[in-house]
């Protein structure tokens, strides 16, 4: 009897220990399977996105719609708050196509705004930094092996209380291959940061301060783009005056750490007044001919917004000016506009403007700029759009109306997650790893 009792106790004990072992194994499997991001969980090991050893979560198959094209990251605004998205084009200057399949990109949990993406092609991996906030602004990191499928890095934010401004990747400098110019909380001016792996950042010096009291950039400056030519670093930035108007400037330095000196031609991108005309008569859906009091304030080829006080609006373009009181738009109106509801036409102009993408084609400077809050007052909620500027020198820049807006804009009928704002572009080439071809 005692022997049988001892035997049963021994069996119970073995069963308990076996249950504990099984439970422990199940917990370990669940923990491994639910890792939030296996791409770069170890900040010291970035081999997972280099060469051929990329994470399986990133597909190396890019659709024909993207192969050999430029990728544009931007932030949009609509019915889901500010979020990030993708567009693509054969040319940085024009014909951008919105990528609804891969947009919007995952926004960090607990944040209400995600904006100002800055993308880098680093060898055979893509990094994208963006500012996200619920209250304070922090710099978050997304990674991709193809520029289309993006994963939020699990240890983000990579820079706390810093809003990202401009980024640069320079593999020839192994001590500081990753460079970032940003805005640090409770400080004025631009601060330089550098990193070995793009994840762990070291703070450098402040490289540019706000302007003199009363000047066009006296209230705030925000770095937006960096361009390296020969031995000169061009830091393009947004400056705000005491009235909160924004214009674009540039400062130059011999090293990324500065010191930077402002161009004597600043602001190189100047704000303009809107040309605004009330409709002289009601305009019906499908019409192209619009009556105004003075058509001379517009120009053929100029982008315009047609809108009224009810929240209706749509982007269009002037095809011709048949007489001093008539404009002809290219696309038939998608909805009616009444004079009793303050139906109006507004030109493409820039009360608040700054560059976010800068490059050169031969000797010609080209810039994609954000027009900020340009239409916020037209009862519609549409706020920001993008336009193209070019010129033979930084002191002689002009708007290319034919290629503006750079990102397509629709109307209030669209009601998309980003229909009211498409801005703050960052452009990187899309390449195929098994091909010798590359974008110019």
Task: Describe the SSE topology.
Elements: H1 2-33, E1 70-78, E2 81-89, E3 97-98, E4 113-122, E5 125-133, E6 137-144, E7 151-152, E8 162-169, E9 178-184, E10 190-195, E11 201-208, E12 220-229, E13 232-240, E14 246-253, E15 261-262, E16 276-278, E17 289-291, E18 303-307, E19 313-323, E20 326-329, E21 344-347, E22 353-361, E23 364-371, E24 385-391, E25 398-399, E26 421-429
Instruction: Give the rounded overall mean pLDDT.
Output: 83
Write the CATH fold name of the largest domain. Answer: Tachylectin-2, Chain A
- What's the Cα radius of gyration? 26 Å
Label the CATH architecture of the largest domain. Answer: 5 Propeller
- Strands across the major sheet, in which order? 16-21-18-19-20-17
The topology string of helices and strands comes to: HEEEEEEEEEEEEEEEEEEEEEEEEEE
- Class of the largest domain in CATH? Mainly Beta
Low-confidence stretches: 1-14, 22-63, 433-440
Cα shape: globular
Ends distance: 89 Å
Query: Which structural class do you get from the secondary structure elements?
Result: mainly beta
Compute the number of structural domains.
2
The number of helical elements comes to 1
> Main sheet, how many strands, which sense, barrel?
6 strands, antiparallel
List key phrases describing it:
440 residues; mainly beta; Tachylectin-2, Chain A; Thrombin, subunit H; 2 domains; 6-stranded antiparallel β-sheet; 1 helix; 26 strands; 7% helix; 39% strand; globular
Describe the structure in your own words.
The chain has 440 residues and is mostly beta strands. Residues 1-14, 22-63 and 433-440 have low confidence and may be disordered. The chain has one helix spanning 2-33, and strands spanning 70-78, 81-89, 97-98, 113-122, 125-133, 137-144, 151-152, 162-169, 178-184, 190-195, 201-208, 220-229, 232-240, 246-253, 261-262, 276-278, 289-291, 303-307, 313-323, 326-329, 344-347, 353-361, 364-371, 385-391, 398-399, 421-429. It has two domains: 70-272 and 349-429, Tachylectin-2, Chain A; 276-347, Beta Barrel (Thrombin, subunit H), CATH 2.40.10. It contains one helix and 26 strands. A hairpin with a 6-residue loop joins strand 6 (137-144) and strand 7 (151-152).
């Amino acid at each position: 009897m005692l022997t049988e009792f001892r035997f049963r106790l021994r069996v119970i004990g073995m069963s308990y220990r076996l249950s504990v072992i099984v439970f422990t194994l199940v917990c370990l499997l669940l923990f491994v399977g639910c890792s939030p991001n296996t791409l770069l969980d170890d900040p010291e090991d970035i081999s997972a996105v280099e060469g051929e050893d990329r994470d399986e979560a990133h597909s190396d198959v890019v659709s024909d719609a993207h192969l050999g094209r430029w990728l544009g990251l931007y932030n949009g605004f609509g019915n889901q708050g500010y979020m990030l998205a993708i567009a693509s084009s054969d040319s940085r200057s024009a014909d951008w196509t919105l990528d609804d399949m891969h947009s919007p990109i995952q926004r960090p949990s607990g944040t209400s705004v995600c904006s100002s993406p800055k993308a880098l092609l680093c060898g055979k991996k893509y990094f994208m930094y963006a500012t996200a906030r619920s209250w304070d602004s922090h710099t978050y990191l997304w990674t991709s092996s193809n520029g289309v499928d993006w994963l939020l890095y699990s240890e983000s934010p990579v820079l706390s209380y810093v809003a990202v401004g401009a980024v640069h990747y320079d593999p020839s400098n192994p001590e500081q291959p990753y460079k970032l110019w940003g805005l640090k909380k409770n400080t004025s001016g631009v601060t330089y940061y550098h990193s070995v792996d793009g994840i762990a950042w070291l703070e450098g010096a402040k490289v540019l301060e706000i302007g003199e009291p009363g000047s066009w950039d006296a209230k705030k400056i925000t770095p937006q783009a960096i361009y390296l030519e020969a031995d000169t670093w061009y830091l393009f930035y947004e400056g705000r005056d005491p009235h909160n108007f924004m214009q674009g400037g540039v400062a130059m330095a011999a090293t990324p750490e500065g010191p930077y000196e402002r161009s004597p031609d600043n602001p190189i991108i100047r704000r303009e007044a809107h040309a605004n005309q009330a409709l002289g008569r009601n305009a019906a859906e499908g019409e192209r001919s619009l009556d105004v009091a003075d058509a001379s304030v517009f120009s053929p080829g100029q982008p315009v917004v047609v809108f009224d006080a009810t929240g209706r609006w749509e982007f269009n373009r002037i095809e011709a000016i048949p007489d001093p009181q008539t404009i002809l738009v290219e696309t038939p109106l998608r909805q009616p506009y009444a004079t009793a509801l303050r139906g109006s036409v507004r030109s493409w102009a820039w009360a608040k403007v700054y560059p976010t993408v800068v490059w050169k084609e031969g000797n010609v400077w080209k810039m994609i700029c954000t027009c900020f809050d340009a239409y916020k007052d037209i009862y519609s909620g549409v706020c920001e759009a993008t336009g193209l500027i070019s010129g033979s020198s930084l002191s002689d820049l002009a708007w290319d109306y034919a290629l503006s807006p750079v990102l397509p804009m629709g109307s209030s009928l669209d009601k998309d997650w980003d229909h009211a704002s498409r801005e703050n572009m960052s452009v990187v080439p899309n390449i195929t790893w098994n091909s010798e071809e590359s974008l110019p």
